Amino acid sequence: MAAFSTLGRALSHRNARIFFGASLTAWTGLWMHRIAVSWLAWELTGSAFWVGVVAFCDLAPAVVFSPLAGAVADRADRLRMTMLAQAAIGLNAAAIALLVAAGWMTIGILLVLEVLGGIAASFAQPARQSLMPGLVPRADLPAAVALNSLTFNVARFIGPALAGPLIAVAGVWPPIAVNALAYAFATLTTPMLRVDEAQRRGHAATASLFGEMVDGLRYAARHPGLGPILGFAAVAAILLRGVQEILPPFVERVFGLGAEALALLTAAFGVGALVSGLVVAARGRLAGTTRLAVLGVLALGLATAGFVATGWFAFGVLCAALMGAAGSVHGISVQTLAQSASDPAMRGRVLSLWGLITRACPALGALILGAAGEVFGLRWPVLVAVALSLLAVAWGLARLPRIAEALEGPPQDGHANR
């Protein structure tokens, strides 16, 4: 009940209801798209490596474009930038659906279109997330961040639950077409948000966009809390999140099942994330959030080891739910810390780095695991990655007091860390 009370405070604001309603719609379409495209890549190639490459092409553009997008989000109209980026995502999905329905899709075309969609998403993420402090009062910001993650994970439950049966009955193009419609809805509702001008722009444009991008990287790297926690999150995402990006090979090779099992596993991730997100939201305070960010990776590593070590599908589903729960605790915690500790003028650039971590690092992990899986099988590379993640957790725990002091105290002057 405490969790629902906390989230209810965030939803009591008109802007938040519009924002999260559009987010739920768009992200449900996104998860339907991801399930369909992942299965499409598996059908086209039958290769774990190529499934990893497709995931990489969707997520990896964040490496190049996220820092640039963050700098743009700090100087442009964030509402307008959000609309344009979401429209581009919807049009890209429509193109994929049409090509698949017409029978013209190849793995090469799919890779190109996934790169284009990844570029659009790299611009949408910092613009949209930077609006959040303008949607609710500062006291409700932790609840809004938790609600943002919960919305994503509710979509991660609903999307696959819809996509699996739809793929089995009608093929892969209808779920992708639904994603196009979902992003069209999100685009059309964005102008309904009423955001103060101060929150729509971080600062007036300067002469050098590249210089602002470098300033953002330097600010995050020199911050005594943001630099370490974002670096820790990046390492964890490379080592542990790749499994979730290349599920089709695990479904078929480890469990001997098909598309409906893929949807069930993905939905299990969402259910676990939803439950743990409610627990995190019920805390309603910043103190202790850094510890949760570190311990969430510990739990994610152990659950991932259980998932790849078994051939029993029921236990695999349970581990998937635990992976979703642990990943949600970690993700909500890091995003809350990034929102709270960032200088407002730097927020878009800091959140673009978080977007880079959540998109590019799992893509790199998926590419590595997919390639290693072709040579060594699927299990051993993942178990090695889990062992390395435990070393990262030990590093995080050793430095926990210093990082927590920098992130959970009063916001620091942004100029002090440039």
Automatic annotation (TrEMBL):
Residue span, Major facilitator superfamily (MFS) profile domain: 204-418
InterPro entries membership: MFS_dom, MFS_trans_sf, TM_effector
Membrane-spanning residues: 18-42, 48-69, 81-101, 225-243, 255-280, 292-309, 315-338, 350-372, 378-398
PROSITE patterns on file: MFS
Major localisation: membrane
Subcellular location(s) of the protein: Cell membrane
Keywords: Cell membrane, Membrane, Transmembrane, Transmembrane helix, Transport
GO molecular function annotation: transmembrane transporter activity
SUPFAM superfamilies on file: MFS general substrate transporter
Gene Ontology CC: plasma membrane
Mode of membrane association: Multi-pass membrane protein
Pfam families from the UniProt entry: MFS_3
Protein name: MFS family permease
Species name: Neoroseomonas alkaliterrae
Taxonomic classification: Bacteria, Pseudomonadati, Pseudomonadota, Alphaproteobacteria, Acetobacterales
